[in-house]
């Protein structure tokens, strides 16, 4: 599976981009927030990806941050939420806002996204309420959905909170640090880089 692409931004559309990696152009479908974060055509960029395969379609989804990809995967686990609806939600709301909406049961916030009615928004926040704290963007551990509680990222978030940073700030900083440093980074290194990001 393709987990990440690093190359040049070759072309963009309303909800897609072509990333040129060593002469091979990958078409990736993106949220508007990711498209805005990719920069200008011809510039270098990195996208975290998720490959969606169905009976009659195969598409690559691209995300500027690993946290956005994690939320996409979580959203598409909800019945009635396909890749287009999940991207619409992530275009309308930041990962922090999605986390906050799910944690607080705020269906109205999720319903701001195009194509998301009150009933579907209610199902999303109800099903994801218990999982919201495990993903970056809010007050929980900043890591992948399957990251064990008490892992390096969770400990790093806790350490930043103990230093006085708000939970949401701590989680975002650690998520950004983990995205930059990669999996398996030590807690100490995570804290060092996350502190710079939180303070900046």
Question: Describe it for me?
Answer:
The longest helix has 15 residues, at 167-181. The protein has helices at residues 32-37, 66-75, 83-92, 95-104, 107-110, 118-128, 152-162, 167-181, 187-199, and strands at residues 4-12, 16-21, 24-30, 44-53, 58-63. Helices cover 45% and strands 19% of the residues. It folds into three domains: 4-63, Nucleic acid-binding proteins (OB fold (Dihydrolipoamide Acetyltransferase, E2P)), CATH 2.40.50; 66-134, DNA polymerase, domain 1 (Orthogonal Bundle), CATH 1.10.150; 152-199, Helicase, Ruva Protein, domain 3, CATH 1.10.8. With 200 residues, the chain is of the alpha+beta class. Strands 1-2-3-5-4 form a five-stranded mixed barrel. It has nine helices and five strands; from the N terminus they run βββαββαααααααα. Residues 138-150 have low confidence and may be disordered.
In brief:
The chain has helices spanning 32-37, 66-75, 83-92, 95-104, 107-110, 118-128, 152-162, 167-181, 187-199; strands at residues 4-12, 16-21, 24-30, 44-53, 58-63.
